[in-house]
Write a structure and sequence with these properties.
Helix content: under 10%
Oligomer: single chain
Largest sheet: 6 strands, mixed
Structural class: mainly beta
Radius of gyration: 23 Å
Amino acid sequence: MAKFVFLLLVLHCFKPCAQTIDREVVIDDYIYEENIKSVFLYPQSQANENPARLIVQPVIPLNSQTPLVLEFDDLTADFRGFRAKIIHCDAAWQQSPLSEIEYTTSYNDYPVTSYSPSFSTKVPYYHYQLEVPAVKVSGNYLLIVFSEDKRKPVLSRKFMVYESQVRIEAAVNFANGTVERNTHQQIDFTIDHKGLQVPAPQNDLKVVIRQNFRWDNAKSGFKPSYVNSFDQSVKYQFFNLENAFHGGNEFRYFDSRTIAARGFGIYEIERLDEFTRLILTPDKPRNNERVNFSIDDLNGRYTIDHRESGNGSVEADYTPVVFTLQMPELSEGEIYVNGGFNLWHLNDLNRMEYHDATRAYQAVILLKQGLVNYNYTLVGNQQETGNEVALEGSFSSTENDYDILVYYRAPAGRYDQLIGYTQLEWNRRN
């Protein structure tokens, strides 16, 4: 009996348990230090310095031979050691109960060993790169990078690993509503789950739709409009606009891939000893103005590039960029410059201030050379999220990207599998 009790105690001590996330870690795309800039996570590309690689989404198939690559810069300009770890999450982006040994293929502590100092830049920095190790199961993941000396988080990025267990048929259309037809886009879709037994697909399947791959405007909680048990298909086609998104407007952009001359959107270049400042052409609200599509509209994303060398990773410089929005001062609320360059977060780094002398809002943001998309967002005193439509307008003909993620937790399962994934384009003209 004593031996039996001892054996139980030993088994209990070695029972796998999920790793607890540090209290300081935010389960989001997040940067914790102002010195950390230009964070990208993307599937590895054969063309290492092709700027287009940076706009490819961190979504890969399970057992993919193409790993994800993380890149970021540290503007302290001193070499620092960094380490990374991976956390598995459920469909709602809460830490799952899986232990590390259940989803990682090696010890979950990865040193960032690839780094290079910047070359011939006014603003010095170190550029770091990490090939993200493979994982065993599908679902949502959070990659966290810590400083090696203080073990504090410096950045976190979401990524997804999917299995193709269902087939998704989807289409983007003008919204059903009479008024919304001119301002919204609607995503109708059907999930074919032949070969996968789903006891109650109306409840068991969790679907998320994102516009332009943004989590801040994602929609979820959909209930199917029709379930066909015989064909094992589930249809999502609604008439109450729950699957409709504001079309928005084409994104504003500027081109700083070279600062030897003024690129598109740049009004003036100030060459100072410590940095080169870029002053953009002043903008105006365009809530009633439909903007024509541009080939450099990256749907809010941005790329890093250095035209002269083709080596943007370490030769692109950091430049303070002056954004100006000409409009009367608001009686309440605040305005932000927003975009993928700021991971779609509204904070002090991209908040604009009103200047009486110029009768305009202004913000100065330090950005690495490249092609940058952005827009303006209004946040009222009673709002928790930004309102882009108030300053940018919304039109159903605007070109946008969408993706659909389908999650499923099997009966008695301990985690949410990502069993289907697809991307959609609307009104793309290139």
